[in-house]
Amino acid sequence: MKKITLGIALIIAMTALAGCGNKTESDETDVGTEPSDAALSAPSVTSDTGITGTSALTADFGLTQDEQLSIFFDNKDVWFVPDGFFYYAITDINNDSRLELIASACEGSGFYSTTYWYEVSADGSSVVEIPMEGAVSNDDLTQPDIVETDLEIRYDSEGNPYLLGCDTARSGFSYASFWYYTLVFKTGEDGNNYFDTALVGYQTFEVTDEGEEINTYCQADGTSITEAQFDELIASYGPVNTSLVMDWGETAEVANFQNAQDLAGIMAVVAEV
Fold first, then answer.
1. I want to staple 104 with a disulfide (CB 3.0 to 4.6 A). Which of 95, 115, 202, 229 is the partner?
2. pTM above 0.70, yes or no
């Protein structure tokens, strides 16, 4: 794992749109012309985004929850950053009986999010990082914001669960962008999971020197759309049937964990929406 020392103060928000990013003011996209009705057709998760389902996942990983927690604890040096401002949680987002351990940080005046995902290896011998592919990667600070109270779980056309994550980027105090990414689990040839990702669309918000508020809404390709059309676009990536209620543990708390059962205290709770 990449050991990160965060030299500036942590700024964290625990709301659905709170988050981080590394966009600058130069990333602002022109509004452009009003698109045709054809350009506004709502995409499906499996076709227009290029993301397919997770049918390769098995229903039972083969290791109990307690066994996986023990492996996480015994390999704490792989995922724990003792000198960082990270938050930690454990869940099973894709319902494959294979726990995911999340290490996520949010810091900086412009909001910078860094998130690492881990799981027990397919053979049960170690802890491995879950890589990302597509629109974002683990090496890119522009990632969906994960450190929230609730994570909404959506489902693709095959009934497989996935996340639609929002990355809040800010440049100064008057300009912000909200970028939405899909995160879908897949299984690689080695039996270990990875994320496939795609950009869904984005919103920009700016306050002019005269105090005028300007909102811009765009599809992933930069095509300008209305607020109602943007809401419809986001809503098309559903339905939202369940929510993960996250119980994040701070670095100082996790540093004092004495055994594997302590990790059970940062397990997410699944709630029906």
1. 115
2. yes
